[in-house]
């Protein structure tokens, strides 16, 4: 894929947002380039994942978010506002080793923490 303005715009948009969905990338990018198509955004995101410039985080609700952090790590989601953020917990590689139990080779695992983010806790504290 040759380097284009649209490709650069999609990349910069992903970097500017925190764990965005493809739709969030599209909505932000069309503010800069109204002629940008949704399909172009999705194609560039898929290419970035294929090139390993981005990782695609599959959510429990079957949606996906894109992450510029390429090392394995964990995420949390706020049950109040829906913000999605990284958790500073070392990746537990040993959780991938189930060969003795099942004979399966596990390549990776995903772990989501659910709770209330710092901002929502502060807002709730102010209301009380």
CATH architecture descriptor text of the largest domain:
Orthogonal Bundle
CATH topology of the largest domain: Arc Repressor Mutant, subunit A
- The total of helices stands at 5
Average residue pLDDT: 89
Rg over CA atoms, rounded to whole Å, is 18 Å
Share of helix, binned: 25-40%
Q: How many angstroms separate the termini?
A: 54 Å
CATH homologous superfamily placement of the largest domain: Winged helix-like DNA-binding domain superfamily/Winged helix DNA-binding domain
* Derived structural class: alpha+beta
Listing every helix as H and every strand as E from the N terminus to the C terminus, the arrangement reads HHHEEEEHEH
List low-confidence stretches: none
What is the makeup of the main sheet? 3 strands, mixed
CATH class value of the largest domain: Mainly Alpha
Extended strand count? 5
Work out the count of structural domains.
Answer: 2
Strand content: 15-25%
């Amino acid at each position: 894929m040759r380097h284009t303005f649209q490709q650069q715009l999609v990349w910069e948009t992903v970097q500017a947002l925190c764990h965005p969905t493809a739709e969030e990338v599209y909505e932000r990018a069309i503010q800069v380039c109204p002629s940008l198509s949704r399909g172009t955004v999705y194609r560039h995101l898929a290419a970035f994942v294929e090139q390993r410039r981005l990782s695609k985080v599959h959510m429990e609700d079957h949606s996906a978010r894109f992450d510029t952090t390429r090392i394995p790590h964990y995420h949390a989601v706020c049950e109040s506002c829906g913000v999605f953020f990284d958790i500073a917990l070392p990746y537990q590689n040993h959780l991938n080793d189930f060969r003795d139990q099942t004979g399966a080779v596990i390549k990776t695992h995903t772990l989501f923490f659910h709770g209330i983010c710092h901002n929502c806790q502060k807002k709730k504290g102010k209301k009380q």
